């Protein structure tokens, strides 16, 4: 077992970053050996060191900007304060603030998608947390149901899975993150049945555990697909946001589990 919450995902995040840094070492070494043959060992070693340092610096820049890059995979979003001044948006903001305090997560940035479907997503990196909710979710869920959604998303921040997912998608970028090699790393880091485990954590964190079931049922009834979301964004969302056929099977199996399965597991508690 892990010594503390988030230890496994922290290790997975560090492993992804280490692989990315090492990825440029082999080409740098090859170029260094060519230069050794052409210009001597000193020039070859200097070339190897310089190229390695440049690559590691490039990876670090990508790491620091991973959240903003990953955010683009969700499709167009706007700050809640600027784009959604409705009662639902205000209620959502107040609920998120309350759950953030109880979970120890710093106050998240809130963004919205102007769609009537019901879904929400979370991204996190280096102490920054961004919650994205559809207009339909903010308007149609009750206070208890919204609290359950906030607990689900912020629970992912607490256990480190939100940051791991943000790095895993944002570091290579959405177009590459959806390919099989990167998808395999995502699944290895998140583990099996991530959606169910997030629901169970939400039930533990919220004041009214049955609210998680109620929220998921409403989401399932009204629909959760997000037009404009990239397949690589699948792991960020509360409920399936993209066509499962466009997502690697292993990813769909752990982050896009059916609402029926998830509510059945919760009702067994």
Residue fraction in strands = 5-15%
Strand order of the largest sheet: 1-2-4-3
CATH class of the largest domain, named Alpha Beta
What structural class do the secondary elements suggest? alpha+beta
* SSE ordering: HHHHEHHEEEHHHHHHHHH
Helical stretch count? 15
CATH topology name of the largest domain, in short, is Zincin-like
Please name the fourth-level CATH homologous superfamily of the largest domain: Metalloproteases ("zincins"), catalytic domain
- The low-pLDDT segments are 1-5
Helix content: 55-70%
Largest sheet: 4 strands, mixed
Keywords:
single chain, 269 residues, 2 domains, alpha+beta, four-stranded mixed beta sheet
What can you tell me about this protein's structure?
The chain is elongated. Helix content is 64%, strand content 7%. With 269 residues, it is an alpha+beta fold. It is built from 15 helices and four strands. The chain has helices at residues 7-23, 25-39, 41-64, 66-71, 80-83, 87-103, 135-140, 143-158, 161-170, 174-177, 180-190, 194-205, 210-222, 249-255, 259-267, and strands at 78-79, 109-113, 120-125, 128-134. Mean pLDDT is 91; it is low at 1-5. Helix 1 (7-23) runs parallel beside helix 9, helix 1 packs antiparallel against helix 11 (180-190) and helix 2 runs antiparallel to helix 3. It has two domains: 7-64, no CATH class; 66-267, 2-Layer Sandwich (Zincin-like).
């Amino acid at each position: 077992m892990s010594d503390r919450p988030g230890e496994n995902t922290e290790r997975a995040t560090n492993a992804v970053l280490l692989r990315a840094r090492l990825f440029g070492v082999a080409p740098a070494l090859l170029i260094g050996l060519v230069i050794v043959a052409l210009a001597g060992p000193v020039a070859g070693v200097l070339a190897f060191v310089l190229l390695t340092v440049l690559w590691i610096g490039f990876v670090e820049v990508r790491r620091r900007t991973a959240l903003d890059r990953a955010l683009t995979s969700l499709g167009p979003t706007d700050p809640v304060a600027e784009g959604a001044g409705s009662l639902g948006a205000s209620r959502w903001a107040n609920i998120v603030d309350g759950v953030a305090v109880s979970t120890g997560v710093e106050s998240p940035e809130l963004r919205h998608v102007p769609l009537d479907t019901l879904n929400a997503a979370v991204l996190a990196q280096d102490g920054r947390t961004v919650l994205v909710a559809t207009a339909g979710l903010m308007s149609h869920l009750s206070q208890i149901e919204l609290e359950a959604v906030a607990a689900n998303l912020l629970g992912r921040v607490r256990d480190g899975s939100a940051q791991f997912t943000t790095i895993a998608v944002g570091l290579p970028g959405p177009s590459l993150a959806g390919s099989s090699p990167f998808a395999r790393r995502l699944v290895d880091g998140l583990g099996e049945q991530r959606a169910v485990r997030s629901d169970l954590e939400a039930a533990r964190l919220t004041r009214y555990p049955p609210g998680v079931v109620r929220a998921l049922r409403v989401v399932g009834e009204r629909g959760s697909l997000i037009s404009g979301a990239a397949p690589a964004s699948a792991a960020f969302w509360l409920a399936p946001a993209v066509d499962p056929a466009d997502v690697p099977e292993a990813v769909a199996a752990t982050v896009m589990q059916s609402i029926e399965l998830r509510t059945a597991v919760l009702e067994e508690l």
